[in-house]
Amino acid sequence: MLTGQVMRTRTIAGLLIACGACGQGALAEVAVTPPAGRLPQAVVPTHYTLELTIDPRQERFAGRTRIDVDVRESVQKIWLHGLGLEITAVYVSVGGAKIPAAFTVSEPVTGVARLDRLEFALANTPRMIEDLEHYFGIAFPYQKLDLISSPQMAGAMENAGALLYDDNLMLLEANHTPTQRRNYGETHAHELAHQWFGDLVTPQWWDDIWLNEA
Questions:
Q1: Which residues of the chain register pLDDT less than 50?
Q2: Overall pTM surpassing 0.70 (yes/no)
Q3: What is the spatial distance between Cα 210 and Cα 188, in angstroms, rounded to a whole number?
Q4: CA distance 204 to 29
Q5: C-alpha–C-alpha distance, residues 118 and 169, integer Å
Q6: Which of 50, 69, 102, 209 gets the most CB atoms within 10 Å of its CB?
Q7: pLDDT at residue 119, as a whole number
Q8: Residue spans per domain, the chain
């Protein structure tokens, strides 16, 4: 079980090291080579518990998080993905005993999505939404729209206010090809249309799903 004070925001990888009396010297002794995207499978999270204090008037939040993990083999370090983590205290709990630990940020992280790979999607989404609002005669029906990329997603999925994509569809490098732009644009327009046809208005049963997909 990993327990720490919480966290803020930006794409990084974090390195947690447990030891009897950890300091910066102990951190320096461990070779830091960030994983390329997917984290190592030696330590796998099984459950997350969050205790957060959120004030809508503030840009930041604070609290505690506990991560239960399955340790599959002996390791000297545990990698964590995070978005601008600011951790004030962390420890590892084993059999009721608390082992002091240290957390440090390691960058850059190769293989992890960067904001610059979302530029094409972010630049073209507003125009698509405007066109669909004009076509349907109905304003975008949700208060927000999240674009989510996953290396384990096959294709795309139109959740209400949240579109989920395969990395290869949405995350385009600066030198992306016209074919990549076309593939993403066709899929993105289709999934955005589902915000009206499929999410706002849904068929009563699966035998009418062709109307939704057409």
A1: 1-13, 17-30, 111
A2: no
A3: 18
A4: 61
A5: 11
A6: 102
A7: 83
A8: 2-106, 115-213
**Can you give the pLDDT at residue 31?**
53
pLDDT of residue 93: 86
Q: pLDDT digit string (tens) for 34-81?
A: 776 677 888 888 888 988 888 888 888 888 888 888 888 888 788 887
Q: What token pair was written down for 69?
A: 């993990």
Q: In this structure, which amino acid lies at residue 50?
A: L
Quote the CATH superfamily of domain 115-213.
Answer: Neutral Protease Domain 2 (1.10.390.10)
